[in-house]
Amino acid sequence: MNASNTHSTGDRGPERTGPAAGNGTEEQPLGAGAPSTGSSTEKDPEAWVTGDEPMTGAQRSYLDTLARQAGETLRPDLTKAEASEHIDRLQEKTGRGS
Predict the structure, then answer these.
(1) How far is the C-alpha of 55 from the C-alpha of 35, rounded, in Å?
(2) Between the CA atoms of 67, 72, 75 and 78, what dihedral angle is there, to the nearest 10 degrees?
(3) CB-based contacts of 91, cutoff 8 Å, min separation 6
(4) What predicted TM-score, i.e. pTM, was given to this entire model?
């Protein structure tokens, strides 16, 4: 622990303060030890804050691969949200989805 989240309590050792102190605002762990909370990491692409920005280079490359495999042609000026929706659809169509 660092000095910003501990302070001396005499003989009892450092006292934890802040979110990890167990005061009802404790953050949940990540990974295998985390409780299952459903698919909170999957947001509707239309709800993305950056969804209207141009698609990323990685999206463009993957979409190119998927579209070629599916025999489709896509617009080159897709947004991040649109690209994500096409990726989901084309993964399903080509069998490359999870």
Answers:
(1) 32
(2) -40
(3) 66, 97, 98
(4) 0.53
32 phi, psi to nearest 5 deg: -60, -30
Question: From CA 75, how far away is CA 67, in angstroms rounded?
Answer: 11
Render pLDDT for 78-94 as a digit per residue (tens, 0 to 9): 999 999 999 999 999 99
Confidence (pLDDT) at 92:
94
Question: For residue 6, what is the enclosing H or E element?
Answer: strand 6-8
Which position has the higher pLDDT, 93 or 33? 93
The rounded distance, in Å, linking the Cα atoms of 2 and 62 is 43
Helix (H, G, I), strand (E, B) or coil at 82: helix
Conformation bin of residue 71: beta by default, left when phi > 0, alpha when psi is -120 to 50 = left
d(CA 67, CA 44): 22
Task: Give the containing element (helix H, strand E) for 91.
Answer: helix 80-94
Q: What is the mean pLDDT of residues 53-68?
A: 93
